[in-house]
Amino acid sequence: MNYILFLDESGDHGLAKIDSGFPVFVLCGVMFSEENYTRFKSSINLVKEAFWADKKVILHSRDIRKCEKEFQILLDYDTKARFYSELNTIMIEQDYRIIAAAIDKQAHIKKYGRLATGPYEIALSFIIERAIFYLDSIYANSKTLSIVIEKRGKREDEALKSHFLKLRSLGTYYVTPERLASYEVEIEFKDKKDNINGLQLSDLVAYPIARYVMDKERANPAFDVIVPKFYTKAGKWQGVGLKIFP
């Protein structure tokens, strides 16, 4: 059985200058079996066609929150309520798992210095580890894992690809290279304009996770919707489906 892990981010991964209003970096993965992804993709396309008569619309968290571009229709209260209701239903009912890592950049610099490993690379290592743990827990004879990442820029993508190849060669702290090889783990980069529904879900999920990490006591209804979708172990998602570092 083939599995797909879609990765997108919230926040800036750089350490040179930290936004005091958003000092975290979140890398968010949503994992589907190939079969479940086909169902999810169809359900999202139905929503796009219902509201825009065009499944080419790209769901983007910031534009939705700000009611910008195509999402100006959400300035109408009733339309917005219907849209969020249908989107939440999909996010609740579809079969997928969230595996995310959040880096507190100020704490990271304080502990390791500004020349420490970059937040993106750290977060990717955590997510790949947990993706393998999750696949290990699924009862199937043969499983492969494809990782789909949204393009950021040629230099950034090359650096990330280099880090991935290093992980595949050396493994991680908890996962040997042989274990990674057994799942035939590969990565590919896709452009936002490719309109990948899995990447759009990851984008929608990443922002409420970042908000939760920055202020766990603040009302966060979008986060409440996705909590049951985190990868869990022994009924626990903290530190499992969501890793906060350091």
UniProtKB/TrEMBL annotation:
<dbReference type="InterPro" id="IPR024524">
    <property type="entry name" value="DUF3800"/>
</dbReference>
<protein>
    <submittedName>
        <fullName>DUF3800 domain-containing protein</fullName>
    </submittedName>
</protein>
<dbReference type="Pfam" id="PF12686">
    <property type="entry name" value="DUF3800"/>
</dbReference>
